[in-house]
């Protein structure tokens, strides 16, 4: 096998590995986004059930929140005396 053919084979192997890594990272990111969206939807449902219809501002705030922030607010849903108390810092 010539050096050029060996180099081409090596390049194809590394290209394939890079493609596989990119696909794996894309899948992981998609799963993370799906989990975050599910957390946001559950939080909205719980808040609406506990405090009534949510304003567009509250829905937008939830949609823009990080996973960590959603978890924090979710922990407060059961004990907060008001909707505002859920979102206090």
Structural summary, described in words:
- The chain is an all-alpha fold and 89 residues long.
- The protein has one domain (7-87).
- It is built from four helices and no strands.
- The chain has helices at 3-51, 56-64, 67-76, 83-87.
- The longest helix has 49 residues, at 3-51.
Order of helices and strands: HHHH
**Percentage of residues assigned to helices:** over 70%
Discrete helix count? 4
Biggest sheet, open or closed, and with what strands and sense? none
* Quaternary assembly: single chain
Q: What integer value in Å does the Rg equal?
A: 23 Å
Secondary-structure content class? mainly alpha
- The whole-number mean of residue pLDDT values reads 91
Q: What share of the residues does DSSP label as strand, in percent?
A: under 5%
Number of strands: 0
Question: How many individual domains?
Answer: 1
Overall outline: rod-shaped
